[in-house]
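User: I'm new to structure prediction. If I give you an amino acid sequence, what do you actually give back? Let's try with this one:
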Amino acid sequence: MKSNRPMHQTSWILLDTETSGIKAPVYVVELAAQHMRGWTPEGAPFRCLLNHNAEIPPEASRVNGYTREILERDGEPPRQVYDAFARYVGERPLVAYNLRYDLDEVLRPEWDRLGIAPIGRPGFCALNLTQRLLDPVPAGNHKLQTLRQYYRLPERGAHTAPGDVETVADLMRQVLRPLADARGLGSWEAISAFAAAPWFPSRIAFGKYKGRLFREALEDEALHDWLHWLASADNPRSAEMGRWYLDRLHAEVGVAEAEAVVIEVGPGDSGELVLFRDPERETLRQCVAGARARLADLEAEYTREHHGVEVLRFELFTRLRPHYERRDALRLQVQYRRRFLDTLILEGEEEAEALAPDYAEAKAETEREYEETATQAADTHALSEEEAQELKGVYKKLVRLYHPDRYAQEPEKQAIYERLTQEVNTARDRGDIERLREIAEDPNGFLLRQGLASLDFSDEAELAKLRALYATLQERIFGLLDELERLRESGDYELYLLSRKRPAFVQEIADQQAEVIGAEIAELEAEAAQLAEEIEGLTGADDPFGD
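Assistant: Good question. You get back a string of structure tokens that encode the predicted 3D arrangement of the chain. For your 547 residues, that looks like this:
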């Protein structure tokens, strides 16, 4: 390859693997790759399943969907796959979203195990490039699927090798390329060197200054002293980090703002990505507007889906309540009868009989919990089409209240703000549109009705506060994307989707669960009866834990 060849003329390989898990030996079960020219895919992709005739742990199958049976049916012999892969790659450099893992920890050990010569040559790590170009990303979150959702990139199929290759290609073309161009990274060599250079997050990730930008040390003497302390730490990595921050401070005095480049989802429904250079007050206002619009969309989406799952859970609870109550009553009986017998043998009859009031209290508490859940279930209804549509408008108003750092130096106001935030989150989780609407329309009126002082929710004007607001909005967006991902990966969410497609499915699930619970009840009844008989045989008195 010629030195400093322009990126758009450079041919390279983007790859991804799916594996059998993390326990050695790690087998590649799916390999996907794409020829790239510059930032753009070129030609047909490569994709193969590999059959190693090895067991695939259940936890790995749950992530990638591949079992030994599927691979034995659809997979190809590994050497045959790697022969084809070698022809596809040629002498091109290899790039992956986590190159050290895919190449150094997965592919090279597998090639050594199979006696295969190394294929291609190392390129740059796409994760390293992403971390540096998007810095500072809130909370250091560079998960591929989180970035895909944040930048509204196409959904390609998470946790599949071809899907992840396509998502990385989308990220590079639509997000990373404009940022690289803005930094003058026009050649393969420049990009590779930038991705490989020593780097630490601009936003400090730990300690007393967690969440602060290290550049703030130019104006904050205490933070500057802390960086010096970090640089003199005994731990080599901590010391390297501290020295790196101090070197950057000295090198960037007067030029840090000139390098500031931000890419953000623009306001509106188009999802268009907008590049902001040197983001001062007006461009930061645009960034904040875009982030608020994105956050409002996500909050509305999360509320709809989370509430839908809750409605399903309560519906199943209502249908299965008699079974649940009988099972839990038996569990409690068995628990206390076992404790009674253990105490009787070790400590005597008086100590054992003293467990009866504890049992009565635990039984009453369980009954209270069932009544509370039943009341909540009765008060929870599916959102109407009108309520679901209204959510977006409500959250457009609510996100203007979001600024958790605004009152950080005023404890009384911070406490009021946290109370308001708690009210919003509780209403969100319950799908309480009326309460959300009440807060959104008149937040200070709501606070006054709660006996609390009003707060200032006017827009920030100072540049530093705008930066802080933009950072906290991003952090909330990334946090909410993680919450959505966890929700959508849950079994309850899968049931919710199925119930929406086929309402009769709810009763089918209830019937299946009733059968499973019924089997457990039968076992518990047998054990409870046996324990009661043992108690009566030893004490000559009635069992104190009967119904």
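You can read the tokens as a compact description of the fold. Here is one thing that stands out. Residues 79 and 113 are 11 Å apart (CA to CA).
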